[in-house]
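Q: What changes when flavin-adenine dinucleotide is included in the input?
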Amino acid sequence: MIREQMLAQIARRTTPWDIIVIGGGATGMGIAVDAATRGFDVLLLEAKDFGKGTSSRSTKLVHGGVRYLEQGNVSLVMEALKERGILRQNAPHLVHDLAFIVPNYSWWEAPFYGIGLKLYDMLAGKYGFGKSRLLSSEETLDRLPTLQKEGLRGGVIYYDGQFDDSRLLIHLAATAADHGAVLANYMPVIGITRDDEGYVNGVMAKDEESGQQYRLPARVVINATGIFTDHVRQMADPQAPAMVEPSQGIHLVFERSFLAGDTAIMVPRTRDGRVMFAIPWHQHTLVGTTDTPIEGPSYEPLPLEEEIAFILDTAAQYLSRPPQRRDVLSVFVGIRPLVKATGAAGKTSSLSRDHTIHVDNSGLLTITGGKWTTYRHMAEDCVDHAITLGRLREEPCATRNLKIHGYRKEVDDQDSLWVYGSDADAIRQIAARDPHLGKPLHPALPYIGAEVVWAVQQEMARTVEDVLARRTRALFLNAKAAHAMALPVARIMAQHLHKDESWITRQVAEVQSLAQQYSLNGESEK
Ligand SMILES: Cc1cc2nc3c(=O)[nH]c(=O)nc-3n(C[C@H](O)[C@H](O)[C@H](O)COP(=O)(O)OP(=O)(O)OC[C@H]3O[C@@H](n4cnc5c(N)ncnc54)[C@H](O)[C@@H]3O)c2cc1C
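A: The predicted holo structure follows.
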């Protein structure tokens, strides 16, 4: 993935693209993979960096969603469990099993959650990750030594999947590119073009780096912009009624020692009826999330004080060492693109209760809602619609058994480069050529300079934030460490992107100010 080459392909193109996808999150990237592997000419345009929106800010679970079972949404759970199995099969280097325990402190919890999780197992069928079972309090504490012991009666263990969301996204981008898709980050769509009859026939886009504008014709334009869906729909039709209702969720990240062992905690019903997870992730403990309706979309939403207090209070009920505000290493916030219950006016076809596909009268195809876990199925549905809408040739979906870029069946999670799958070998070679690039950039995190070089040369990282937030996860794991890494990362990037000192200064200032926001504890490390 080399941005200059992608731009050259865009400039060379004289005929309409089969499909232009607006938005480079899980939804848009899944569509690019699906369309490219069916043999269509596809162009994906992302306004910022791939994954800058919601898709780097999830709880990192590939799951059926135990809580949807409680709501009686069996078809949604079955679909997600199946997709969970397909994703683990196609990307074993990125998705792995994780044991979860629902701790029981009341007499009724073991039978109640035990039966619910047996149903969860049954719905997974051949895609199951492991059988749930009841645990005694000793067995529960064996697996979760830092769990609150007082009043503990036992637990229910079950299995789900875990992943690194923005890493999977970059590997999906590489998969799409491997199959001929053209992708550009920092290329916002600034207008939708329409033919004499008012029918959508392409987009206007702007390269944020050079300022150059492009008029790009297409047979089908797909709007996959998550929380920005309505903004893009209103580019085509200023009267289009809003269909997305944003709701934010925050996560707090702590040291690994707060959740010793390799098992996660799932609290199905917090004091105020929410679901909460405490999960081991990249040698840290991630706790979340919340569900707070908000006014509108933004790229860097702020956590509310009451959300922080809620997570700290709930964690204190379940962990023997209650985490304090000063223990928070990073706080990150994502916004769910929930579809309004009433739907939008016009031709809305709800393909499942999970995601929504909508065709505006102008012919703009919009897909929104859903979850990371179901991105592949969403993409299949969407491209099927695009084929009909754009009168494209009928081609069957090819992603069910498609190996994701970097596929490697066995990974060693003790190796800090395991998330790269087969690409890890090339990164090790970069480090071998220049041993300086083999050293960690910060003592608190495993990231090395060779990963920065790889991100620039092969993964279209353009800014220091791209590297610290989404190619590595430094900003999400430890905001102070990310603050300290900014300068060394900028220096490596500047060398490979041929940038000068003023670029370095600007980049460092920008990402350090963001790191302050992700750090709850005031002044970041100098
Ligand atoms: C707190 C939280 C926790 C979650 N946890 C999980 C979980 O554990 N498991 C799970 O399966 N799901 C989870 N989800 C859901 C999942 O993260 C989302 O469903 C998914 O990431 C949405 O992806 P998307 O591509 O639709 O949106 P986004 O990732 O937001 O992508 C939309 C993209 O469109 C781009 N864009 C906007 N306007 C333009 C324009 N004009 N031109 C070009 N590009 C544009 C944006 O920059 C953005 O990158 C969670 C969600 C939240 C909020």
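Observations recorded in class: Residues 343-353 have pLDDT under 50 and may be disordered.
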